[in-house]
Amino acid sequence: MVIRHANPHRTGEPASNVEVALRFKKKQGTPEMPQVEQEVLAPNYDRVRGGNLHLANNARDQGWPHPALYLRAAFPDRVDVMERVIADGDRVGLLFRVTGTQTGNFFGIEPTGRRVDVYEVALLRLANGQMVEGWFMMDEAELLRQLGSPLPPRPDGRIVAPPIPQTLSAEDFVRGLEARPAASAQDRNRLAAAKTRLSPAAREGAGQLLRHGFEHLRGWCAARGLALDLDTAFPDRRYGIDVTLAEGDEVWLRFNLRGTHRGAFCGIAPTGREVGIHGVAILTFREGRWVDSWTFADELGLLLQLGQPNLLTG
Prior knowledge:
Helices cover 25% and strands 32% of the residues. With 314 residues, it is of the alpha/beta class.
C-alpha cells in the first residue's frame, strides 16, 4: 500500500485508530494478513457494506469463480494508493485508489489483462483498538468501464438492485447538530457541511467542485449532447445523512440521495421508480467557509435501480 496523504495534526485516541486502520490496509494480501485480522478485527466485526456490493450481489449463486479475499485471485498484483485519511472520535475514513491487473475471473468477468485504477472509500468504526464496523464503496461503474465489460448477465435475467437507504433526513440531522453547542471550529464546519445537503441551492456559489457525485454519468451525457438534470429527472429528490467526520479543515459526509424517476435522465425515459443511493462528500474549509468539495456517488447502484446497469459500458 502506498500512502500519499495523512493529517499531521492528530493527537490522542484518533491517531491510534488510524494506526489500526492503516495496519489493516497495509497487510492485506500479505502472509501476515491472517494474524493481523485476528488482532484488529473485533469478534463482532460487522462489514455493513462491501466495496464491490453490486458485482457481488449480481454474481451470487451463479457458480462463477470467486475473486477471493480482497480480490487477490482476480487482481493478484493489487496495490492500494492511500489518498486521504481522516479520524474523528471512534471513526476513521480512508479514501484510496485500487490499482491492479485483472488476470483472474472477477464476479463473472473473464480475465481481460487490463489495468484498473479506481477509487474506493472506507468508513470504519473502532473500539478498544479493534475495528467493529466497516463500510466500503468502490467506484464499480468506473471499474466496469475500465475493464471494458458490461455487468455479467445472470441466466435468470435478474438485475439485483440495492435497497433504498432509510436513514435520518438531512433536515433532522442538521437540527440535531444545531441542538448541540458548536464548541470548536470542527463542530461549526460539520454543521456547515451538513447544511450543503439541505438543497441544491445550499451548494451553489460557495466552493469549487473538484469532482461531481455523478462524475461518469455527467461525462457520458456531455459526450452525447445530453443534459444531466437531477431536478427534472427526480423532482422530489431529497437527501439523508448517515454520518459525518470532522478533523482539521476537512469534513466527510456519508449521505444518500432519494427520489422518484419522473423525468428523462441521461436518455433514460421516466420509469416512475423510486431510487436511492449512497454517496460520500469531502469538503475543505477555510475560516468557516467551504472552499472545495470532492464527491463520490454510487452510480452503478443508481443504474441498477433504473434497469440500465450497462449504460456506461454499452
